[in-house]
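Researcher: Let's try something more involved. This one mixes different molecule types, so please make sure each is placed in the same coordinate frame as the others.
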Amino acid sequence: MSTIEDYAATYKTLITCVAARVPVVLWGPPGQGKTSVIKQIAADQNRHLEVILASIREPQDFAGLPMLSNGVAALMPPDWAKRLSQVENGILFTDEVNTAPPSVQAALLRVCLDKVAGDCELGEDTSVIAAANPPEQAADGWDLAPPLANRFCHLNWDLPAEVVRDGLAGNWVSFTVPTPNPEVLTQSLNAERAALAGFLASRPDLTTVLPKSSAEQGRAFPTPRSWEMVAILSGWITACNLESSVRRIAVMGCVGAGPAAEYITYRENLDLPNPEEILKNPKKFVLPNRMDKVYIIGASLMSAIRNDMSLERWQAVGVVLERIAEGGNPDLAVTFARDWLRERPSGAMPDTSLLKSLVPLLTEAKMI
Amino acid sequence: MTSAVSVGVSEEARLRVMAARIIAQGRWPYLSTLLYTLRVVESDSLPTLAVDQGWRMYYNPEFVMKQTPEVLATMVLHEGMHCVFQHGPRFSALNQIGSRHTIWNLAGDANINEVLDQAAMPWGEFSPVRFSTLAKYGVENAMTTERSFFQIIKYFEEHPDEAEAESDCGSVTDGQSRPYEIPRGDGDKPAVGSDQQSVIRDRVAQDILKHASERGIGTMPGGLLRWAQELLQPKINWQRELAGTFRTSLATVLGRRDYVFTRPSRRQDAMRIGSSEIILPSMRKPAPPTVAMIIDTSGSISSDQVNEFLSEVDGIAKSNGIGQGLYVIPCDAVAGPAQKLQSRGAIAELKLTGGGGTDMGAGIAAAAEMRPTPRIVVVLTDGYTPWPESLPSKIDSLIVCSTVESTMKAIPEYARAIYLEEEK
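Model: All components are placed in one shared frame. Result:
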């Protein structure tokens, strides 16, 4: 299933991976325009591109040809490696990685991780892109070996019908991503690392999760390395000011759907105001315009006063509830008011103006 | 939106919708963030309730006032589930003619109302679309929305004279704007963007899983739990899992088609440059091992399941270069004679009879006695069987496929276990 929005977000994730030098693998059936998109990206970023088919290569094409010379064996780099080492900011695109025999995949490991082919350094500025056909679609496809799979951000590449329709009419859609300001980038990368450290401190069990099934091991799963890739990509996405759907796809591509959803939720919660701050100064509380955030703030306030109840804190929540009700969401206020009234400290009375705005709704919902 | 109804009715209807939302939230607290994200808009240009692509919920005030808050809460949850199940993008992905959206809506409704009925939600006087309503079109219980949709389309193609049934829950179900919708960028009630929607859906899915793990699976409708698991813990189908496991087994058994330096390459002579020499490896492909498939014939596995399983293994083996040497052993309490599987077409000719009692250990022992010894053994069973203490040393790899999930725990450590989920 793919819509034009999914395609746009995947496309932008790919550009971000290329720009951030995070190795990326595109999963999709043949004929989905993967190669032409990558050529387009290379042209847009003004970078040298080498395209090689992994399935017709031998391990020495990646590990270097062993050559005897004066009694010493040296690993001769292949021509593409030589060219990439000579240019700055090259891009290496290896197509059909999973139809390559295992020893070729193993040789690719060193190229993807260390950016070394034979005795030839490709340079840290080189980006690595791979494409693979899902094993059920390729005649003799293998699942990627877990160590190789874990070095990539995995993207599902699927051309929606609308894109093909417009493309055949001569208008292949393409996207660009703004180049981030280096200072902003450093800042957002640091912020992202801090957020990720906080997340893994609260969920240490998600640091490394090796999937049980062999097919899942060939895709995205969390390890310290793939979390590091999350920090880089998510930092870039903040610095480039991209949509949250791009972040979702990028994080999912590195660590898998479940851990990605948890991390993104954690990140979103970090942006919410601290409940203790609101309780100290409830009159200054500004209603967010997203109602899901209002709900989460309400829930965090309720758990804060349950943990530490005082008349003052209880009344502060009343002020916030009144503000939520006045903001056009009395039903959201009532949801919390129910529990809030139940937690009432002895002798405390809710404000009459709050009650006035809630009572009609409480009556309608038959709660009083 | 201007309204013909009086201010009094308008205000009462707004209260009722909000009350319904409070009740709905109380029933399914894990949907809270989604329910409160829906902005409510009054409109008398539609008959009942609807949600648009930007998650704004429109209601007809007169319709609303005819429902009790409890019944209305059920309808609010219904609309919310259109958002959860992503009916809009799923319809676009089918590339269907836009006018078929009313039938798509119908198919989606049946699925949603099945979940609501499981939770015994009140409907009052209102009679919702159910699978039983669609039975006359050939729709069966628990079909996916896509399958019901194509079934109904097929029915109307075969019966062109009948008036098409329809349902309309707004553009959230199909992505096509309706005339009554307020603009996306409305200052007071802006649309929720699709990327924001997926973040909220992820959060709802996590809340569902959390609720299920804290309060027990029985406390929530299975339809929602399955959706959340599929979203956050996507499963790989058994065919793919079996293929992957089989390949891994093959690799550990004998080595695969791969490069070796132990023998010179055919092209070695052409690789001399001056006094230097490049050393090329040659390709090596070991003789493929024999594979035995043990089929549990004690009863509960249907012949369709056996056929599908055998042709799957046959296909996987062929694509991995094992053209010959596939054997099938039927097994109940004792193992039957091993039969060679020549081709996929010969599956129907296999004699797979059996009866009372089950012991897969007998089948495994029989496999170990075969000559040549099968290095890979694949077992298809319902799992209600004892297992041997250890694997006979001649067998390198044992893959057990069980059709019953609860028996998976009993499968011994030395085997690779796969759950064969039946497709719906």
